[in-house]
Amino acid sequence: MAFDINMIKEVYARYPERIEAARKVVGKPLTLTEKILYAHLSEGVASQAYSRGVSYVDFQPDRVAMQDATAQMALLQFMQAGKNQAAVPSTVHCDHLIQAEVGAVTDLAKANDKNKEVYDFLSSVSNKYGIGFWKPGAGIIHQVVLENYAFPGGMMIGTDSHTPNAGGLGMVAIGVGGADACDVMAGLPWELKFPKLIGVKLTGKLSGWTAAKDVILKVAGILTVKGGTGAIVEYFGDGARSLSATGKGTICNMGAEIGATTSIFGYDEKSAAYLEGTGRADIATLANGIASHLTGDDEVYANPEKYFDQVIEINLSELEPHVNGPFTPDLAWPISKFAAAVKENGWPAKLDVGLIGSCTNSSYEDISRAASLAQQAVDKKLVAKSEYTITPGSEQVRFTVDRDGFLDTFGQMGGVVLANACGPCIGQWARHGADKQEKNSIITSFNRNFAKRADGNPNTHAFVASPEIVTALAIAGDLTFNPLTDSLTNEDGQQVRLEEPRGLELPTLGFAVEDAGYQAPAEDGSKVNVSVSPTSDRLQLLESFKAWEGTDLKGLKLLIKAKGKCTTDHISMAGPWLRFRGHLDNISNNMLIGAVNAFNDQTNKVKNQLTGEFGEVPATQRAYKAAGIGTIVVGDENYGEGSSREHAAMEPRFLGVRAILVKSFARIHETNLKKQGMLALTFANPSDYELVKEDDTIDIVGLTTFAPDKQLQVVFHHSDGTSDTINVNHTYNQGQIEWFIAGSALNLIKEGL
Ligand code: SF4
User: Fold this and answer.
1) Rounded Cα–Cα distance for residues 14 and 10 (Å)
2) How far apart are CA 653 and CA 588, in angstroms?
């Protein structure tokens, strides 16, 4: 599991020259975020200043991290690139597929059985292509990355929305779709819109019941779930430097809840202490050598309004513990106001379950502080009134807190230790009785609390808080309990108070672990076979998409003219379909089933022009495919908004759709379509959308002279014998046209080898 010190040396070696170049082109002092971004430009030194929120820029990330659910399609695609090894250090983490039910040992054994074929595939494909593999039970991706791979000034992409967790250690770490991970592993640059910058100045110092989690709970309340969109949030100030590295990780992790691209803290003494504490003193030594590049310039932090697009200031000395929720992470309540809010809104005051841990809050500091409260409960003869679970973020943390007696303390309080995995945080929670859909309350130290996320019950009111507050409220069994002011009645009928939690940022005896759960890849992977059963319904090896036939596309049929919003969820629904995310054929049975047909205002009901009958979209498309007939999909504005899910582009390509013609695209989806060798076209005149008729046969003309900035023509042959010819726009550059010609970006990479 060794981190790649030589890679880090190379990254740091290029910092001085790149920062100097960036200073020249930007022409003013630099934020930390700008320094890291300019140091990772894929074309080398900065030749221009990029407009925030406007310019699309190619970057070269240093690392890739993938969780097991999203890694499947990323790696199936990567296998198509024909490479021997991943181009950058990469890891896979088996954390999302373990269901919490009874406790760590039983649940893990069950998951190993149920997901065997997926784990075998991920293990063998990692082994073959030089990718580190973290087995089920090894821990949650973000905690494992923070402990082992994150480094100040680095850039990482990860196939999970909480990848920004590594920002706690000064890394620009961004959540992406599997196709992006595949590209970077194949050695291609990675495109990002140059972000806007939000500065958060932290002053003062945390004390008492307040924890790092309360900073992001407060920020979420200020910025709301949309306020960080398109921005990187950079924290600075004396208060920032006073926080532990893992506390910073918590803040960056939950920054995903305000829609931020990522969040980041600068390198400081706390970062160095954490690197040393996790066996990476040599990285701290290297970072000390370029420390001035691993934080924003003094002028920036002295006058942040001049350099950030928005500035927020929070005094940690005055910050109260918060509880956010229910149903949304930005409904922020200081603890002093929370009890009244519970009563006024009629939320169930009885607390059924308190859950601590997850990737957000399972550091040694978190666990030790929560355990100090559990110990008080035991000492003061308080019996926890709620159920209470602990999800350690990694085996290293679990082993260490077990050695130090904290798990035993939780056990005495009635706590149950779950597997080192996502579990209840992602709905992998076989919560007994949840199917009755009763109104109830739970509180977690996780990051997301949308309806149904934890247990599938829409009436579960989920609140989010620090592990300390979760523990105190679980002891009380009552959401209206304020541990800062209220007392509890113990077994002897006495009134007792919980004292402020206490803990340690790092273990005095150091971290320890017997088996971290890591599998190093083979030195030479050429002989390693990748295990995929041909009869599997969850995994399927991909076949290369066919290259363009070299002619205009004639005689296409209209599959669907979608009306209104058509997000990646409408194109490729999640929920039960996630089970098939490694099996393109099976998951394609969800293609466009959420899109509204403009001709009948219904979903998943389109006319099959071959039979005249109406059927489901995927089945109709399969009928065209079987007949060797290509189709086109017509759409409205901002087609493909939502996630970067590559399935939304792969499914139509796989089933034989040739072009998507819309009024406008969400950019990520448009790029995904291009990568898969599809034609992504827009109406030159948006009102031409009205010309498209249900029985149209369609030609796409001009492909033999397909060129950047040159329109193509589309001819609609209507069933009454008339036709309309229109101009359509595209945004393909020459490189992307090559993808189309080759059949996909991956085909082109393979051809180049
Ligand atoms: S613990 Fe929760 S937030 Fe963290 S990676 Fe797992 S599912 Fe995502």
Assistant:
1) 7
2) 10
First to last CA, the chain: 29
Q: In sequence order, what are the residues at sequence separation of 6 or more whose Cβ sits closer than 8 angstroms to the Cβ of residue 708? A: 732, 733, 734, 737
Residue 310 and residue 199 in contact, taking contact as beta carbons nearer than 8 Å: yes
Torsion of CA 233, 236, 242, 248, to 10 degrees: 20
Angle between helices 5-26 and 281-289 (to 10 degrees): 20
Neighbouring-strand partners of residue 553: 700
Give ligand 1 pocket residues (Cβ under 6 A): 95, 140-142, 160, 162, 358-359, 422, 425-426, 446-447
Q: Are the C-beta atoms of 424 and 391 separated by less than 8 Å?
A: yes
Cα separations in angstroms, 362 against 19, 153, 587? 35, 24, 34
Alpha helices in 303-456 (DSSP H): 304-307, 335-345, 364-379, 395-403, 406-412
Average pLDDT, the chain: 96
Tell me the CA distances in angstroms from 616 to 213, 440, 603, 649, one per residue in order.
46, 38, 9, 19
Q: Is 64 left (phi over 0), alpha (psi -120 to 50) or beta?
A: beta
Assigned token pair, 522: 């083979």
Confidence of residue 1 (pLDDT cuts 50, 70, 90): low
Query: Of all protein residues, whose CA lies closest to atom 6 belonging to ligand 1?
Result: 422
Element at 426 (helix H, strand E): none
Express each pLDDT in 161-187 by its tens digit: 999 999 999 999 999 989 999 999 999
108 Cβ partners below 8 Å, 6+ apart?
Answer: 98, 136, 137, 419, 421
CA angle 90, 92, 96 (to 5 degrees): 150
CA distance 50 to 56: 8
63 is catalytic: no
Q: Which two tokens stand for residue 485?
A: 């002011």
313 sits in which H/E element: strand 310-315
Give the Å distance between the CA of 162 and the centre of ligand 1: 7
Q: How far apart are CA 447 and CA 255, in angstroms?
A: 9
Q: For residue 96, which of 155, 48, 140 has the smallest C-alpha distance?
A: 140
> 3-state DSSP call for residue 470?
helix
Q: Which of 142, 453, 455 to mutate to test the pocket of ligand 1 (most atoms within 8 A of CB)?
A: 142
d(Cα 12, Cα 548) in Å, to the nearest integer?
Answer: 43
C-alpha distance from residue 602 to each of 145, 606, 607, 624 (Å): 45, 8, 12, 21
DSSP assignment, residue 418?
A: P
Q: 108-130 pLDDT, tens per residue?
A: 999 999 999 999 999 999 999 99
Q: How far is CA 48 from the centre of its chain?
A: 30
Q: Which of 52, 63, 93, 96 is catalytic?
A: 96
Contact assessment for residue 240 and residue 266, using Cβ atoms and an 8 Å cutoff: yes
